[in-house]
TrEMBL record:
Organism: Nonomuraea rosea
Entries under PANTHER family matching the protein: TOXIN (PTHR37816:SF1), YALI0E33011P (PTHR37816)
Name the record gives this protein: Adenylate kinase
Length: 180
């Protein structure tokens, strides 16, 4: 496990898992949204695909995403492991609601210095609406990719509940990781 995608829908805990794995495995963690959005107004990085390709060609990395469309296949082809946080809406929605509410109320700066605002809550691409509307689609897409021969011999570790992921994570360290 040296090239890892932590996949799941918005609010699953991908970034939290990716950071924890990075610490335990001493593998560099890359926050996908921070690489994608580089400026105010949710400006997309013009060099995004090239930067991801550069990172993906390195011997070890962890991304907290299954990939934006322009880099998705590249990441899945180069990954050796996918950690799939496949949680139901009853887990996801309270998490994403709390996070977005906190970010809105505290005016927390995120990717490229942007902020979630009250006005953004009414947009279809707001994390809350996205998590709700894309849950089934994202789950089906990850399932299809996990079983796609193009991405073999990809090792997929699927967790259906946060406690499963937490229990597994406690067993992971740099000594045992080569056995996975």
């Amino acid at each position: 496990m040296r090239r890892i995608l932590v996949a799941g829908i918005t609010g699953a805990g991908k970034s939290t898992m990716a950071r924890a794995l990075s610490t335990r495995l001493a593998v560099p963690y890359h926050e996908m949204d921070a690489l994608h959005y580089t400026g105010p107004g949710w400006t997309v990085n013009g060099e995004f695909a090239a930067r991801i390709a550069e990172i993906a060609s390195s011997p070890a990395w962890i991304f907290d995403s299954y990939g934006y469309p322009e880099v998705r296949d590249l990441l899945w082809e180069r990954a050796d492991t996918v950690i799939w946080l496949d949680y139901g809406r009853r887990v996801i929605m309270p998490r994403v609601l709390r996070r977005s509410l906190r970010r809105t109320l505290t005016r927390e700066r995120i990717f490229g210095g942007n902020r979630e605002t009250l006005a953004n809550w009414f947009r279809r691409d707001h994390p809350v609406w996205w998590a709700w509307s894309q849950h089934g689609t994202r789950r089906a897409d990850i399932h299809q990719r996990a079983h796609d021969p193009r991405f073999a011999p990809l090792h997929v570790i699927r967790f259906a509940a946060p406690q499963e992921a937490e229990n597994w994570l406690r067993t992971v360290d740099s000594k045992t990781i080569t056995d996975v």
